[in-house]
Task: structure prediction
Amino acid sequence: MVSVEVSDAVVVVRARTRSGVPAGCTGCGQLSGWCHSRYTRRLSDVTLAGKPLRIILSVRRLYCENIACSKATFAEQVPGLTVRYQRRTPALQRLVEDVGVVLAGRGGSRMLRILKIRLSRVAVLSQLMRVPLPPLVTPQVLGVDDFALYGDTYGTLLVDATTRLPLTLWEGRDAERLGRWLREHPGVEVACRDGSLAYRQGITAGAPDAVQVSDRFHLWQGLSRRVQDIASAHRGCLPAAPPPIGDAGSARVEETVENTTADTRAERHARRLFEAVQTLTRSGRSHSSVARELGLNRRTVSKYARAHTWQEVVRRPPRKPSTLDFYLDYLQQRWDEGQHSAKILHEELQTKGYLGHYQRVKMAVAPLRKGLPIDEPRERPPSPREAARWITTHPHRRGPHINDRLPRLLDHCPELRTAHDLVRRFADMLDNRDATSLPEWLEDLANTGLAPLTGLARALREDRDAVAQGITTPYNSGVNEGRITDVKLQKRLMAGRAGVRLLRHRVVLIAHLRRRYADRPTISPR
Result:
């Protein structure tokens, strides 16, 4: 017996279970049709036609005819509609749980409100934490990596590298916790990790028979950082990368620079500091004492002391290329011919195909009015990070810009040349998955005399077996990096206020939720 009432605010369905139909006891499961009484249950269901749906259901309370059962009476349940002690239908309960997994408390509450389901953020989080985690199956290939939890506190994430599903996470990255987890879950055959000593010790203690694999990405990242350290230590070699300026052009620029006066506030400040630093350093004072007297950083004093003119220390970022660069020679030619009107010059350039604004032409000819050369694009030297990126990039993936400048830099700096050769040798080992030449490469790395590479060689020698496995085997921690990105996303969704227990719950459940919905077949419209 079912009746439906529709109003502007809600849809109400009134229903009644059939009498005389046996129902199973919730205690022992034995069927019984002996009715004790009836009572009304009020259930919430998913929306119908955009309106909240309420179900008012009359159910029976039955006697249990099993004498041995602890229950004297029990309430009948309607499969797919009612659950004991639950005022939501299973469909609505799954919706609330899935929204909580995806959007957490406040976001989940707002989404449910859009779906005409009013539930507070605390209630959403409560329902989320009641969802049981899937049973943990010990993986054959385990991925271990750390992630920033908050501030200077890090956490550890374990991932099944075969199924690509997260297993668990906890605060800290100590060896004892990892070893204890591995002893509680025996069966791990391969463990992928970074070069962390704590993880190495934890895997050795918890799963001594497991093959440890040092991740290829972390090996390459560590080598790239050492190359950047070398480039930072030899920063003076980096200006050799841009194309050399002609002698005539250099003389003209130097002459112009010497005759230029400090017009702006930044230029006047740079000139005063330059003169003060040069005066004190020429008297034999150390950079540290000059820094204390002038109230500057020691690096700032060193920069001003190395400079030949105050113009070198003024922050002048190179002008970016623009569509006007193609017409600079024509502007110079027309200026020399006596045409000094920016408006007329702009009109002439428009007839030649220039589509830029008049203001850009006006700014371009401004130096000519002061007797200065036109401001052409200047090539700045690479930063240490850019130089390291040039060296670590595969030769076939380097652009013409890098291929033109990197050889000049390597010819000028033997240390960077040495680092470049070692990087390319290690890249060949990774590409060919051949670690035969690893001992020789480590020996050459240690004999370079460069402190960053010497320290890296010492660390890799202590972990040489895992490094060789990382080069030769297909196992890696790439799946961990993807899951760590997911962990950071979930933290941001909760404004970084999630505790470890809630974060672990969401990270594990959301991965299984995605897998569950991804496996469902898509029904294409006819």
Q: What stands out?
A: The two ends are 36 Å apart (CA to CA). The CA atoms of residues 260 and 370 lie 10 Å apart.
